[in-house]
Design brief:
five-stranded mixed beta sheet; single chain; 31% helix; globular; alpha/beta; 23% strand; TIM Barrel; 12 helices; eight-stranded parallel β-barrel
Length: 391
């Protein structure tokens, strides 16, 4: 049976479901220490992925009959980019434009080009247009890209009317509000590059509340999430890497429950980076069941992470994020009186589980966390003597 999040209830809010996210979603080829996915975007969406992490830059590609140099916007995976300004015929838009042309740094250290942006968008559009998945949605998160304006233009050109343009606070949007659309999300750095209102049409602002620390804003126009990935870039063995990832993810989610203290200068103790309080119940949580490395075969490591004896680690992280919030932040974020009159209890939890090599089995396991979430909410309601308050 295909995974359909609309089956959970079209009135469910985005921050009330648990869904699979694709890490470096468009790196479907390349060396073993670079490739992170085996299915294209359409294949991943059909498998159950709804959130896609994409990085895009412009690569010079062979020209057509005229021999003139062309460029294409493509996903990439690399430690860094060497970028300069060039004038090229951009295949994605069919126009000659000034752009930031990039070459990948880190040959032999996980550098690779991935899917073209146009193909990514065509796949996404095909999915939400299909009769089988008519009530579904996709979210594309663009981060650490170049040529933000050209990416936005290409998204509007390819997606057309299927690009989400409803605005508002995405965290609390009902799934029915997103049905049949592709949300094109730019992280804050990229969104700020779009200076004119016309450039922002169809583009949704995505903000990470964990880095840098920030409070949740109920009137924010876009998506606000709490989370981060990454482990140390070293040559550690599998067991060390998986334990490192579990510790890192549990620590990040624990801070959602406890908040983050101000970072102060060493000697004068002045506030260098302001902290923030515990994550608001309406924030979207994100966790990573991935490991970062530059030397090892990513698929081999990923296969081990999904073996039955190791899979409990992912559930441990997910449950820990829930439990820490219950233990530490619940009293400050629950008004029992509000629920006694028929309101709904909402808690912060990891809503997006980022994975490598997404497939139906992995997505099915993550989809199953929705059942656990509902059960945990029922337990809390019983503890607080709130009958019928869990969604």
């Amino acid at each position: 049976m295909p995974i359909k999040y609309s089956d959970l209830g079209s009135d469910r809010q985005l921050n009330e479901i648990v869904m699979a996210g694709s890490h470096d979603a468009a790196i479907t080829s390349g060396p073993a220490n670079a490739q992170t996915q085996s299915l294209d975007i359409l294949g991943q969406a059909r498998a159950g992925v709804r959130f896609f992490d994409v990085r895009v830059a412009a690569q010079t590609v062979p020209g057509g009959a005229s021999g003139a140099k062309e460029a294409q916007l493509r996903a990439f995976h690399a430690p860094g980019l060497n970028t300069d300004t060039k004038t090229r015929q951009l295949k994605d838009l069919g126009q000659t434009v000034a752009l930031e042309r990039s070459k990948l740094k880190g040959e032999g250290m996980g550098a690779a080009w991935g899917m073209g942006l146009t193909k990514i968008l065509e796949d996404a559009k095909k999915f939400v247009e299909s009769a089988e998945f008519a009530g579904e949605f996709l979210i594309l998160k663009f981060d650490k890209c170049t040529n933000w304006g050209l990416i936005a233009d290409t998204c509007r050109s390819v997606l057309g009317k299927k690009i989400y343009g409803g605005g508002g606070n995405l965290n609390t949007k009902a799934l029915s509000d997103l049905a049949g659309t592709v949300v094109v999300g730019f992280m804050t750095g990229g969104y700020s590059e779009l200076k004119q209102p016309a450039q922002r049409v169809g583009i949704t602002h995505i903000k990470n509340l964990y880095k840098p620390p920030a409070g949740y804003d109920g009137s924010f126009d876009g998506l606000q999430y709490w989370g981060a990935g990454g482990t140390a870039l070293n040559n550690s063995g599998f067991d060390s890497k998986i334990q490192e990832n579990i510790a890192t993810q549990k620590g990040i989610l624990k801070k959602a429950a406890l908040g983050i203290a101000d970072k102060k200068t060493r000697f004068r103790r002045k506030v260098k980076t302001p902290g923030c309080s515990a994550a608001d119940p309406n924030a979207v949580g994100m966790m990573y069941w991935t490991t970062t490395g530059v030397f090892k075969n990513i698929k081999d490591r990923n296969d081990q992470m999904w073996e039955k004896q190791n899979l409990g680690g992912m559930d441990t992280i997910w449950r820990a994020g829930f439990q820490d919030y219950i233990d530490n932040a619940l009293p400050a974020n629950v008004d029992a009186c509000a629920f006694s009159s028929g309101g709904m209890l909402k808690l912060f939890m990891p809503n997006i589980v980022m994975i490598d090599f997404a497939d139906p089995d992995k997505c099915e396991h993550i989809y199953g966390l929705n059942v656990i979430a509902a059960a945990e909410l029922v337990k809390i309601c019983q503890k607080l003597d709130l009958v019928g308050a869990a969604r």
